[in-house]
Amino acid sequence: MLRADATLHNRGDLPLEPEVLTLVAGEVRGQRPTLGFRLPRDRTSYFAQNASPSWEDPEDAPEIAGLYRYQLLNPPRLAGGSNVTVPFEDVPLRHTRLTNVASLVMSFASEQRGAFQRRYSLVPERPLLEARVTVRDQGYLVGQPRVGETAAGQEVAFTLGQDPNVTYHRTVTLLSSAATETEDVDRHGRAVTRAIREYRVTYRLHNAGRRPVEFEVTERTSYLTLFNVSGPAGNQFEHQTDTVAFRGALPPTGDATVEFEVTVREN
Question: Who contacts 124 (Cβ-Cβ below 8 Å, separation ≥6)?
């Protein structure tokens, strides 16, 4: 569930006790030429955060694309000089997922160490306005990214920075090496010889946190062609001629080892 909050500001000295309160949000993309009607974004954007639009035509203004109105049924009392934050809508989510990802350029020169990046995705059941979203997962605050306007049913994906608790150590072992002639020829008409090498790649993964995490690792190359890639059985391991990817889960304060063997040819 995505909750929409509005922060109300009373800049005056006297208290306000409104019977009806309408919130206005969004970015106005048009203006009325004859009257010069224009509602700048900076006067409306602070009224709503993380909101899904429920369109109403303004009663005293022409229809304006990008302007959204929300009516609070029980508006709060605003003391003089006070700020009050109130929830005003819950947006159901069809899907949410927090994954730790690592994307690497395939290399066989040396070992590599690093931390995973956190990626979050969600699918709202109603349209969303552009807003800053506070993301909590299993009670943990994991980030506050800004998302753009989103249609209902459209996936929103964003990164939440590095997760220092989830790390990898990648090592490479050369298993065999040979030279072979190809169908390519050089400028003198002689067959081009290319090296073909077989490697074993080992990932040692570690989760230092107190909650389980899902992970995905992707390696890509633009100067090698991959042959005879073999790895863990099942649908958790995938490969193409230029990509190797695998996924899984790490238990709290747990470790895992993933190995795959690959034969490569220089392009």
Answer: 2, 52, 91, 92, 93, 94, 150, 152, 153, 154, 156
Give Cα 37 distance to the centre of its chain.
37
Measured CA to CA, the distance from residue 231 to residue 245 in angstroms comes to: 10
CA distance 263 to 20: 70
Within 8 A by CB and 6+ apart from 234, the residues are none
Polymer length in residues for the chain: 267
End-to-end alpha-carbon separation of the chain, Å?
49
Q: Which of 105, 84, 94, 112 is nearest to 23 (CA)?
A: 84
> Residue 90: its pLDDT value, please?
81
Summarised one tens digit per residue, pLDDT across range 7-61 is 889 998 999 888 888 877 766 554 444 444 444 444 333 333 443 444 344 445 4
Measured CA to CA, the distance from residue 69 to residue 154 in angstroms comes to 22
Q: Domain spans of the chain?
A: 2-91, 93-267
Quote the CA–CA distance of 232 and 229 in Å, as a whole number. 10
Q: What is the pTM of this model?
A: 0.69
